[in-house]
Amino acid sequence: QETSCHLSAALLGEDSEISQDQLYELLKYAALGKCHNAAQPSWCRIYHQSHLAGVVVVILHEMSQLHFYRFYLQFKHLRKMFRHRFTLAPSTNFPLSLYGEGANLKPQNTPQGVTSSSSECITKSSDLQCDPIIQRYGDKKQGLTSYTLTLKEQKENDYPIEGSPGCQGYISTECDQQRTDSSPLFGLDCEMCLTAKGNEVTRVSLVDARGQCLLNELVKPESTVLNYRTRFSGITRKMLLPVKTRLSDIQTRLKKMLPHDAVLVGHSLNSDLQALEMIHPSVIDTSLLFARNEGRRFKLKFLAKAVLGKEIQCEQKLGHDPTEDARAALELAQFFIEQGPTKVAELNLEMLLTAEKLAEVSQNKAVLQPQGCGCQEQLNEAPPLSKPCFLDCLQVTGQKPLLLGRQGLDSSGLCQSNLSTSNKQILQRALEDVPLSKFSIIQFSLGPEYLASHLHAGLHEKVRSKLTDMLTIYAGPFEENFCMKSVKKEFGRCGPIQSLTVVTETFQPYVCIQYEVLEAAQLAVESLNGAEVAGSCIKVQRPVTAAMLDCNVMIKELELDVENEGVIYVAGLKKSLTETDLQEEFSQLKDLETLFLPKDLQSGKHRNCCFLKFQKTQSAVDALEAINGWTMKGSKLRSRNALAPGHLWRWIWQMNHSNGKQGKHLFYEKMEQLSDCEQDLRKKVKKLDHHIKKLYGSLQSNTLCVVLFPGVNSTHGSQSGLGLMGIKDDEGRSAC
Fold it and tell me: What's 164's domain CATH number?
């Protein structure tokens, strides 16, 4: 349907790790569309963004991809609701990296103890009264005449005034009619060069209230040019050679163009009027309008980015564009007049500027960082802050972002715990408040007792151990002098082998084979159990351990995972085949959408298997029947349904190749502590899963929902996060 939104993301394969910047990119576009420099994210696509009913982000505080797959069976609803899943690069300060720089979100404790915030309580009114903008203009909206400079203010800020010393010979615009709140605004900006006379105009731009350019003219200086100031003005000697226009011509044209009640707008407009040698009685100076303490002023470039979401005076351009600057100043004045002082004060521009400076310092440090510096210091640094907060942009558009959770943001962007709140209370508030907001962030937590670093270490080891068992099979018995080469060849047709060893503790020889992918181990169990290999009829089985008792249930649930719909695994490929070769070989398969050819992450070499994703589930079923028994370039293919979603390939490889580095005593101590609380943890995860299901069920159709396990990045270690996302359709499911 034309009005329904849907999401497209080609996330199959090891490229499906998404950075914090890419996540920010998605949320910004979903929230703002093409406004405020938002653009379609580079890694996925939202269709019909303008029809989105809202955006809901659910953050599972201090949880990682480990939690999702350790408690995969407990996350019964979560894994079935969303079609798109991705590994999320962990962050040292996840909330700050999500909200962007300048997230001036000060939480308030509600009567229920829930940390809550919206644009109405972003900045407390007591804080606003101290803001220089409120102190100067009050907190009520006013007309434009309230923001024009008084005669006294013009004198204090070196504006040319009739009869003042140094203004002899200046031309008046003769705009002497009484100003009203409906008087027309005009943006003005000039570029100057240094001459023997001083600053002289070389270019003039004038724009009307709609931002249309009325004048953009090069001007020939009267005196000899000493410095063209090309870096800032963009003016060169060559540009001015053919120019005939003089300052007097510009003065005459401006007098004719401006109506008698015109109000001129500019940034430090006194410099422009001095260079033009003109006097105008009614001006709005945006460098003074956006007031700061102690007489300091914001730069036009910063205000354009922080308030309007526009990039001006870009470094790649040669000099400033006076039309762009005039238009920016005009739009800033219009924003101030239309929104009023309170809205402007709520932007907390001082904090945004501080964040921008911190970003510059952080980037400079990164550039100057000598090789060999310890990474400990880098871990403790906040992430680079290079973007204005899109939640602030939402407020500018009149939308009300909602924040609910145990973890709030103070003005520095750091988390603070509110331990009196339960997930149930947060859910109740979310069910009431989310329908009233276009952008909501809901944060749940398992509780501080489950977030300790030693529990993370124990969890990591349990997941790694179970994964190793699931990747491992035992085969035998074989004859005493069996051919190991034949065994390796036969089992290698199921997929890439990591290790193959002979078990010597048994009466007859067995082999232990550890694969690199889950599908290979399962394929070996399914296709070679009871088969004749190396002259023996063998049995193929997985290790029997306490953790493996639910292995068959786990395999079945993985196979039914919504992300594995339409995906099949193919093994037995010759390693010499390239991706292009495979595309050609499989081109006859109907509705083939994506082919993923895994690589060894150390050597970069292709493995002897691939994954095929089809647009329709039935096409995948048909392909599975067709491929089993195929011979490709002399090699017999084997295939089955996929078990591990594409984003897991890199993660499984890393887990598979990691070795425990801690001492045995410390390891068993951590495992024992985890075992003591794991049963309770399973119950909490099930409740959390139910909360998310209930929240998702309450959302309107066409709502983008993103569930984030942020991951952990601390001095104790790093664990990747996980993201699940989808747009809810009319039937309550996540739309593709």
Answer: 3.30.420.10
